[in-house]
Amino acid sequence: MTNLLVTGGAGFIGSNFVQYTVKHKPEYHVTVIDKLTYAGNRANLESVNDRIEFIEGDICNAELMDRLVAKNDIIVHFAAESHNDNSLRNPWPFVETNIVGTYTILEAVRKYDKRLHHISTDEVFGDLELDDPNRFTESTPYNPSSPYSSTKASSDMLVRAWMRSFGVKATISNCSNNYGPYQHIEKFIPRQITNILSGIKPKLYGTGEQVRDWIHVDDHNAAVHIILEKGTLGETYIIGADNDHVNNKMVIEQICELMGKGKDWYEHVNDRPGHDQRYAMDSSKLRRELGWQPRYTDNQTGMHDGLLQTIDWYRTHEDWWRPQKEAVEAAYAKQGQ
Ligand code: NAD
Ligand code: TDX
């Protein structure tokens, strides 16, 4: 058995990763460490409760991380403050968790000589102009725009420095926007689905021309497992599903249609300050060297099946999201969003 420590395993991508691991990778014994912030939910791990160990705690707690890292072989680090709009309201938790938390993990990993995989994002590269056909690669210079993305960029830099200066055994992946079950309803896609389920019109920031290179969460997590199995230490891998022709307006229209509303049953609201225009990922290294392929690649937006599955999940899990809906919408309403 390989002992696997998953930080942030009660959040959106982390909890999908833990469920995927328990289902498909029986060679791992999984321990989750999660602070259970507003974004973490113990219920996300209900289906695997008897197969994993769960520790409620903060990755900034050096004594705790020391103890947990010492007991495990591999650490997959998802824990983060993850929402751009929140980072514009209050950046401090982003600095603390994303930078100090990653530093704390790196020090423990260095001390016990363990293997780390660090989960990062496309946002560290900044954005592209809408008409720029280029894509981000592993060697694109960092140029983050928001408090969120700048703290993620900082954490990547720390990992790179610890690999080079101390020989820490790590890999990094930068993935594009994820969607799927268990995503917090503050985020774009689940916000619109739960709006429609609540009789509220979906809210599109600004013109909706912005492009996100959407990927289903299971495709992201399958890539992380391939990197754990076959990745080269010291390397960074870009993960993306080639959806960089899909803008926010197209996504919202598709959700409206799939949920039986007219294509235009949404409204424009205030734009996000400093809104990144376009993300596009070149994942050819991961595909070529490690043989990864996304599974959700159907029709012209590449999201039809994944969106249907996600809509169905929110439809059948109203008890999971309903308690948060009013407060999330009230916070957005204050900003005219
Ligand atoms: P999320 O906000 O849904 O989950 C984050 C989890 O981390 C929560 O369970 C939360 O309780 C936990 N956490 C926060 N602070 C903590 C702390 N100090 N100690 C311990 N646990 C803490 O986020 P997500 O969308 O699942 O993102 C997970 C990771 O993937 C993040 O590192 C994010 O930057 C990265 N990422 C996300 C996306 C995306 O589209 N969501 C895309 C690329 C990369
Ligand atoms: O109600 C909305 N209306 C809207 O038009 C919301 C919440 C968002 N948007 C737009 C803003 C973005 O262009 O949709 C796009 C996606 O927004 P988010 O879901 O907030 O994602 P984004 O800011 O792109 O960041 C996400 O992808 C990269 C994750 O939240 C990050 O954690 C990840 O690193």
TrEMBL record:
Residues 5-297 form the NAD(P)-binding domain. It is an enzyme of class 4 (lyase). The keyword NAD applies. InterPro entries: dTDP_Gluc_deHydtase, NAD(P)-bd_dom, NAD(P)-bd_dom_sf. Its EC number is 4.2.1.46. SUPFAM superfamilies: NAD(P)-binding Rossmann-fold domains (SSF51735). It catalyses: dTDP-alpha-D-glucose = dTDP-4-dehydro-6-deoxy-alpha-D-glucose + H2O. Its cofactor is NAD(+). It holds the Pfam family GDP_Man_Dehyd. Keywords: Lyase, NAD. Transmembrane segments: none annotated. Belongs to the NAD(P)-dependent epimerase/dehydratase family. dTDP-glucose dehydratase subfamily. This is dTDP-glucose 4,6-dehydratase.
